[in-house]
Amino acid sequence: MAHTLGLTQPANIELPKISFAAKEIDVAEWKGDLLAVGVTEKDMTKDENSKFQNPILKKLDGLLGSLLAEASFEEDFTGKAGQSLVHRLPGLGSKRVGLFGLGQSASSPAAFHGLGEAVAAAAKTAQASSAAVILASSECPSVMSKGNTAAAIVSGTVLGLYEDNRYKSESKKPQLKSLDILGLGTGPEIEKKIKYAEVVSCAIIFGRELVNSPANVLTPAALAAEASKIASLYSDVLSANILTEEQCRELKMGSYLGVAAASANPPHFIHLCYKPPSGSVKTKLALVGKGLTFDSGGYNIKTGPGSSIETMKVDMGGSAAVFGAAKALGQIKPSGVEVHFIVASCENMISGKGMRPGDIVTASNGKTIEVNNTDAEGRLTLADALVYACNQGVEKIVDLATLTGACVVALGPSIAGVFTPNDDLAKELFQASEASGEKLWRMPLEESYWESMKSGVADMVNTGGRQGGAINAALFLKQFVDEKVKWMHIDMAGPVLNDKKHVATGFGISTLVEWVLKNSSS
């Protein structure tokens, strides 16, 4: 492997292997290190003698000599979302028993995903090698199917256990080897859902690792190599085509190459293609991701407090979502759908050969752009990527990008903004996000704002005024999409990072996989 600046290389750490199983056994008979009970606030109601009324809690408390009820009272555990209570109590086959709050009611993937994360955290603390999860209330899975409930718990557990320690000199391995899911049924249907959750969760981890990798390690060449590895791993359904700078020049990608010009690391235009192993293709889709492995801002350099230049390795979060989805779909192998994964990867740097404010670049569809801000570079790379995607003959395109700070100001750190002129496509993506638990919010494409994007000397400028910045960016991208193609832009600048932990979230992967499957005939 080539030397990086600083001689940094990520350690090759294997993901923990956990055996998941759905079982129907009496909760009192389960033997292991940690028995985790998901409870709503309603489940925690007690009678006049301070005894649980919920049948499962009543049974457990009876075997534990009322210690569970006493502990919940003393520690003011009421079942609120995020609360947990774990004790080592004699009387059961499990060493420890824990109550994990689900809030007033649990009816969303996010609630059960959170339960899985909380169980993972408790298992780490207790150094448990085996755990089981049961829901106290039989009402919990009524809104979601039992299979989807189990899948959300599995996903939360896998992602909750995972820590990206590749760049740390020392790291601890989690001890958890098995997790049993009790009371949600057994059989091939729930096993299929659990396997699906494992596949998507591992893809999310892959995406997180891409975003977490520093720019001195994850260059455009390294990102292209990671994408090629996915295609090699699932070569029965995936192929890779990496375009060089010269090939991009032949395709007249002047907008993309203008951004890439200043960097010592050459650009790599990455195109993966998924084709089903058998049967005819009924739908062709494209997933386009922004792939700036580092964004200095160019000559409009990011400076001062709040510029976040030190976090600009995350500016390829859109590409991580796209390639994470490719990894999952390579394993799931949906039928009837062809998917193109497209990323125009480069760095936005500063040098004597770099793009200047005021320069005019020409995109591959012939449209000219006056660059009035070199720090609005993502949309310039996406312009040529969107033209390329349309040329693949696709019917629908979803692009994902850490595009604007304006979207973060509007929606905060955990919600992505969605822009599309097509209501049917919006409906499809929102159904997919409901299944994944990721948060999207539809924003307006206000055509009158395009006035601020007009140039006196070119077809357009690349930024408008400060007001409505995320809308202006979406309107810019729209200029590079064929009118016959259904298109959506997702601005994920907020949810790409977990602000509290300062690590990547893997946002978008789960929703993209759900969306592709909804468009397949599987």
From TrEMBL:
<dbReference type="GO" id="GO:0070006">
    <property type="term" value="F:metalloaminopeptidase activity"/>
</dbReference>
<comment type="similarity">
    <text>Belongs to the peptidase M17 family.</text>
</comment>
<dbReference type="GO" id="GO:0006508">
    <property type="term" value="P:proteolysis"/>
</dbReference>
<dbReference type="InterPro" id="IPR008283">
    <property type="entry name" value="Peptidase_M17_N"/>
</dbReference>
<keyword id="KW-0645">Protease</keyword>
<dbReference type="InterPro" id="IPR011356">
    <property type="entry name" value="Leucine_aapep/pepB"/>
</dbReference>
<dbReference type="GO" id="GO:0030145">
    <property type="term" value="F:manganese ion binding"/>
</dbReference>
<keyword id="KW-0031">Aminopeptidase</keyword>
<dbReference type="Pfam" id="PF00883">
    <property type="entry name" value="Peptidase_M17"/>
</dbReference>
<dbReference type="GO" id="GO:0005737">
    <property type="term" value="C:cytoplasm"/>
</dbReference>
<dbReference type="InterPro" id="IPR000819">
    <property type="entry name" value="Peptidase_M17_C"/>
</dbReference>
<keyword id="KW-0479">Metal-binding</keyword>
<comment type="subunit">
    <text>Homohexamer (dimer of homotrimers).</text>
</comment>
<keyword id="KW-0378">Hydrolase</keyword>
<dbReference type="Pfam" id="PF02789">
    <property type="entry name" value="Peptidase_M17_N"/>
</dbReference>
<feature type="domain" description="Cytosol aminopeptidase">
    <location>
        <begin position="373"/>
        <end position="380"/>
    </location>
</feature>
<dbReference type="InterPro" id="IPR023042">
    <property type="entry name" value="Peptidase_M17_leu_NH2_pept"/>
</dbReference>
<dbReference type="InterPro" id="IPR043472">
    <property type="entry name" value="Macro_dom-like"/>
</dbReference>
<protein>
    <submittedName>
        <fullName>Leucine aminopeptidase 1-like protein</fullName>
    </submittedName>
</protein>
